From TrEMBL:
The chain crosses the membrane at residues 6-24, 76-94, 106-124, 203-230, 266-287. It is found in: Endomembrane system. It holds the Pfam family DHHC. GO terms for cellular component: endoplasmic reticulum; Golgi apparatus. One of its GO terms (biological process) is protein targeting to membrane. Residues 155-304 form the Palmitoyltransferase DHHC domain. The keyword Acyltransferase applies. Its EC number is 2.3.1.225. Belongs to the DHHC palmitoyltransferase family. The lineage of its organism: Eukaryota, Sar, Alveolata, Ciliophora, Intramacronucleata. The DHHC domain is required for palmitoyltransferase activity. Keywords: Acyltransferase, Lipoprotein, Membrane, Palmitate, Transferase, Transmembrane, Transmembrane helix. It catalyses: L-cysteinyl-[protein] + hexadecanoyl-CoA = S-hexadecanoyl-L-cysteinyl-[protein] + CoA. This is Palmitoyltransferase.
Amino acid sequence: MEQILLFILFALTTGSFMYMLVCTDSNSKSLMGMIRRKLYTNGPSILKQLFGNKIFKKCSDLYNYVFYTNNRLGQMAYFFIFWMAFAFYVKFGLLKHFGDTPYVSHIHSVCGSLIFLCCNYFFYKTCTISPGIVNKENNNEYVKQYQKYYDEVQYKQNTTCTTCNIIKPARSKHCRICNVCVSKFDHHCIWVRQCIGQNNYKYFLLFLFSHLFLSLYGVIAGFLCLFGIAEKQSLFKLTYKNAVTGEISQATFLRVFLVISNRETFFVFIIFVCLIFFISLTAFFLYHLNMIRKDLTTNERIRKNDFEKSFLHEMYQLQKQEIRKKDENSSKRLAQLKLCWNSLNKRRVQGIFEGFKIVFSQPN
């Protein structure tokens, strides 16, 4: 049983890491961006060699279906993982140890359950509140609202969405999965089966925060329970004999933890599941806080990186050409690129509190 639980922990950790890779910008200079580029460059050829073209194509089709079609697999996976994890915690932790150890009383059973309900409420709101769909009726309103963001680089005035046949407001994007234009588009989230945009971004943030807070609560309460069990059973006062050498030694935190893990295997397992969730969700939440501080969306950050990569490459080529031979057209193009570069990097950092004020003032 221990081997199965360790395998599940390994699978959850790997799955969380791979999902974070999928969400990472391929042009990012971070470690995750570098790993993603390596995997996306070399991964397909390695998979083809290992499994053959047919299996590779099936895996590719499954990947595209999960991440690039409007299906309910993400919502189903959310309910299965989240509710199953909470049910395990209730059975092996809350009902068994809360109130029975010196550090965790039954009040934490109530608090944990209330936070769980909040998580489900914010998930429901994120799934059901419109992200801010732009249509012919409200097109002019959104165009005026984001007029100051037209920079003629990322966002050009009077650009038409050929699918929706409307003028594209600055900061909007046509989502090919939902087939609608979304105001202040951030990203399409498979877990809630819709886009995250102007109107539901606040609920998405609360969705992330409530889940990471519940995970942290579960980790802290769990370890306090384990510590209480150790004290209650006087495990720190015992001496331990090495089965091989016969050496007698005093109790250490590691030895006590191994003893408790052997006795409370399922409870320790679910505590580590909570820890994995907490680390993953905290990384996403801090990322979005940073985006709010910079007044950027995920879509804008990716577009900005794409533009910068393209501009840097072209400017480098033009500068080399200017050194070899003076050319008026090249000089004009270089000056134009430098203006575009300055335009991309001139947006002010608004600060986290002003950003929160804007995000939470948006209508539902």
